[in-house]
Amino acid sequence: MSDALLAVRGVGKVFPRIGRRGAGVAALARLLVAKPASEGFVALDGIDFSVQRGESLALVGENGAGKSTLLKIIAGVLQPTSGRADRLGSVGALLELGAGFHPEYTGRENLKLAAALQGLSGHAFAARLDDIIAFADIGAHIDAPIKTYSSGMIVRLGFALVTALKPDLLITDEVLAVGDESFQNKCIAWMERYLADGGTLLLVSHSLYHVKKLTRRAVWLDHGRQRMIGASHDVAVAYQAFHEAKQASAKAAAVASASPALGHYAVTDLHIEHSDEAGLRARGRLHSRDGRRPHVAVGIVRIDGTPVYGTTSEIDGAAVAELGDGAFEFVLAFSDWRLLPGGYRLRAHALDPEGMRVYDTVERDFTVGGDSRELGMVRLPHRWM
Q1: CB–CB of 131/140 below 8 Å?
Q2: Inter-helix orientation angle 151-165/181-196, to 10°
Q3: Does the first or last residue of the chain, that is N or C, have fewer Cβ atoms within 10 Å of its Cβ?
Q4: pTM higher than 0.70 for the full model?
Q5: Which one-letter DSSP state was computed for residue 262?
Q6: What is the total count of domains within the chain?
Q7: Which class for 3: exposed (0-12), middle (13-18), buried (19 or more C-beta within 10 A)?
């Protein structure tokens, strides 16, 4: 589109493998003849999206997914192996910590140099310097060499410069993950004003709260490939469910070893009827080898295994319905729905008639949708006074 500040079209990046014999010479030869690497580590493959003027877009994904590589290509630091990334207007990029700063120069000297490279110098720079220093809020360290700065101080200096430049497109890579909470809040407030004034933001963050708060669309990268693109909330919920499921799989061996052996009572069927409006209904069947009426425990956990709620038919004084031939049926409805958006798992456990011992467990996953930036797992009734 004509109003796109950024158009990423089929971008791929392959890094040549230097470890094997002769690979370094081959890589140098490719550079001399401007021939891209065709074999090696595929960091990006077929990335395709655009960012319109005034839009805010996030990149999410695990470490090593290719986010930083893509940002470097967009910023012009790296060249893609295939495809292209076209930019319009001025670009402000906060990428690697300390990038663009000379370690031997003071903070003040680095500000002057970096601003001049962005076209801000002379009287225009002098008029904004006090505001930049005030935003950075690093006190007397402004006249100390950058090499003496902490990581948080470097981020403060870099972000403070961006506030003075106000680029058409702002690219940030995990800026809000460094520094204290008060400075993070200051940065968020500035970015919200920047967006309200028509600025365009490309944000990389592992904080899904920041993704949902600051952006409207998101791209999920997974092993260098574009796995999902859509509304920030939808992508964040899907990515969180994926991440929690991955964490849960790491616990599977321990859970399996702790599970009791199957025997007298079993869960033979389990279905979930779920909607974000009506809540959840769990319907299942149990089998009793000795014909005695078993109990059932039903629980809801986050997809990573964090408990949310659980109860049993024995606790509630309920009885499962007898169908004959050792088969029993249960239905449990959760109608007052308070779960926040995310990935969840429903577990049904077959218990003995005394409600004391677990004999079998069956699980079903489900996702709660919705557009909410509230934190936690459940929505508690509340009101502001």
Answers
A1: no
A2: 20
A3: C
A4: no
A5: P
A6: 2
A7: exposed
CATH number of the domain where residue 330 is located = 2.60.40.10
pLDDT in tens, 129-160: 999 999 988 999 999 999 999 888 888 888 88
Task: List the structure tokens of 3.
Answer: 């109003």
Domain extent, residue 362, equals: 262-368
Q: How many CB atoms within 10 Å of residue 6? A: 23
Closest to 305 in 3D by CA, of 237, 245, 257: 245
**Whether residues 156 and 28 fall in one domain:** yes
Q: Give the residue-averaged pLDDT of 358-383.
A: 87
Length of the chain: 385
| CATH code, 132 | 3.40.50.300
Give the whole-angstrom CA distance, residue 145 versus residue 103.
Answer: 6
User: From CA 177, how far away is CA 163, in angstroms rounded?
Assistant: 18
Assess if residue 292 is contained within a domain.
yes
- How many Cβ atoms sit within 10 Å of the Cβ of residue 8? 23
pLDDT one-digit tens code per residue, 85-95: 999 888 888 77
The CB density around residue 135, as the number of other CB atoms within 10 Å, is: 20
